[in-house]
Amino acid sequence: MKKRTFIIAQIFILAIWLTLLLSFALQETDSFQDAVAVNEALQSVRADWDRLESHENRTDLSYVVLDTEGNVLYRTGAGLSESVNRAIVHRDTILDIEKEGVVAGRLIVFNDSSGILESRKRTVTLAMAGSALVQWALCVWYLFYLRRVIIRPFRKLKDFARRVAGGNLDVPLAMDRENLFGAFTESFDIMRDELKKARMAEAKANAEKKELVAKLSHDIRTPVASIKAAAEVGAALASERKTRENYGQIIRKADQIDALVSNLFTATLEELEQLTVASVDMESSELAAMLESADYFSYAAVPPIPECLLHADRLRLQQVFDNIFANSYKYGGGAPQGTGTFPENRKIDVTLRRENGYLAVCIEDCGGGVKEEELPFLKEKFRRGSNTGNLEGAGLGLYISDYFMKEMGGELLVENGENGLRVTVAICLSK
User: Fold this and answer.
1) Which of 217, 304, 335, 393 is the least crowded, having the fewest Cβ atoms under 10 Å away?
2) Across residues 224-250, what is the average pLDDT?
3) Domain 276-428 in this protein, CATH class
4) Mean pLDDT over all residues of the chain?
5) pLDDT, tens digit, for every residue of 81-129?
6) Would the pLDDT of 362 be above 90?
7) Greatest CA separation found in the chain?
8) Beta-bridge mates of residue 422
9) Cα–Cα distance between 348 and 328 in angstroms, integer?
10) How far is the C-alpha of 429 from the C-alpha of 427, rounded, in Å?
11) Residue 310 phi/psi, 5° resolution?
12) DSSP summary character for residue 132
C-alpha cells in the first residue's frame, strides 16, 4: 500500500512539473498586455484631452500622452518611453488619440512584459523547487521505509542463517508479520525447529547405535574368548608341529579379533575416522609374521625382508595386510570358497624394496586387474571395481587401509600390474 502511495505521489509531482513547464513555454509575451485596460486608458485620456493637467489614471497601466509634435503632455510615472522611436524599441503599445476625427496625439502604454515574465519565472521556479523539496522528502521517507521493512528484516534473516549454519539452533527468530519478510521469517523459524528436532533425533540414534554396538561387541568377545581357550588347549595337547602351528594361527587371529572388537566400543563403521592409530618403532622382521598371518592359505612366498626400523601401528598394519590378501583371495582368482585349493598358475606375488624413506611392500594377485578409469576410485568408501560380479563386499577394505596408512605417515598405492591388481603398502621408516 505504501509503495503504491509513493508511486502515485511521484507521478503527481511529475505532472505538476510538466504543467508548469508547458504553461511557461506556451505563454505568449504579447498576451501580457491587458486590452480592456488599454482601451479604458485610451477612452479616459480622450475624455480628458482638454484638461490633461487634471487627468487621473483609472487603470493599473503606466502610459505617456504625447501631442502630434512629440511633446509630453502627461505621464503616469518616470522611466517610461517618451518618444515613438523609444516606444517601438521597447515594444510599447502606441495608440492614436483622435479628437473629432483628427489625430490629436498619441498614447504610449508601457509594455511591462519583461517584468511579468520575470515574475512568472520566479513563480514557476518556486513551485518547482517546492515540488522538488516534497519529492526529496518523499524519497527520504521511502528510503527509511525500505530500510525498516526490507533491509533490516533481511539482515536479521542473514544473521539467523549464519547462526543456524554455525549450529546454534536454540535461538528462535523473532517474527514480524507486518514487513515483507513476515512469511519467510515464520518459515525460517519452522526450518530451525525442524533442524533441531532432526539433530536431536540423530544424536539419539547415534547413542542407540553405539549402545547396540557395545552390546554386540560384548556378545562377540565371549565366543572369541572360548575359541582362543580351546585353541590354547589344543596347542598344548597337539603332538605334531604343524598342528601346533595351526592352533597358534587360531590364537593369533582370536587376539586380533578381540582387539578389533574392542574398537567398536568407541567407533562404528560409519565413524571410521574415530579409530585410533598409535604408531611405534618396530623391527622390519616383524613383517614376516604379519604377512604369513594375513596369507592364511599360504599362497604367497614371503621374500627376504630388508633390515630396518619401521614406524607403524602393529594392529593397524596387520589389518591393512589382511584386507589386501582378503581382496586377492576374493577378486584375484584365488581359491573358491570352501575348497582351500589355489590353482597352480595363480599365485600372489609379494616383493619388498626400500626407497625414499619407506619400505614398500608390493602385493600383486593374478586376477587381471581392473579398468584404468576405475583405479582412482578404489580407495573411496563403498566403491568397488566392475569385475566384482556377484561377490559380496562392502567396498571398505582399501578405504580403511588407505586411512590407516595415512595416519601412520605412509601411503597406499593401487595400480594394475602385469598379472593383476598391485597394491603397494609404503611403510614409513623410523627417523
Assistant:
1) 304
2) 81
3) alpha beta
4) 78
5) 888 888 888 788 888 888 878 888 888 888 877 666 677 777 777 777 7
6) yes
7) 171
8) 364, 415
9) 7
10) 6
11) -100, 160
12) H
Residue 308, class by beta-carbon neighbours within 10 Å (0-12 exposed, 13-18 middle, 19+ buried)? middle
Residue written as cell 594375513?
294
pTM: 0.45
Q: What is the DSSP letter of 408?
A: T
Helices (H), 27-150: 35-47, 84-89, 113-146
The residue-averaged pLDDT of 190-198 equals: 79
C-alpha span between 20 and 424 (Å, rounded): 90
Q: Are 360 and 415 in contact (CB under 8 A)?
A: no
Angle at which helix 314-331 crosses helix 241-263, to 10 degrees, equals 110
Residue 397 CB contacts under 8 Å (≥ 6 apart), including other chains = 323, 324, 326, 327
Q: Could you give the strand order of the β-sheet that contains 63-67, starting from the edge strand earlier in sequence? A: 72-75, 63-67, 102-109, 93-99
pLDDT at position 307, please? 92
Q: Locate cell 604369513: which residue?
A: 292
All three cell numbers of 420, joined, read: 593383476
CA pair distance 189, 277, nearest whole angstrom: 42
Give the span between the Cα atoms of 185 and 288, in whole angstroms.
66
Domain boundaries, the chain: 276-428
Cβ atoms of 81 and 87 within 8 Å: the answer is: yes
**What nine digits make up the cell of 60?**
493599473
pLDDT in tens, 48-85: 888 888 888 888 888 888 888 888 888 888 888 888 88
Burial class (CB in 10 A: 0-12, 13-18, 19+), 109: buried
Query: Which run of H or E residues covers position 366?
Result: none
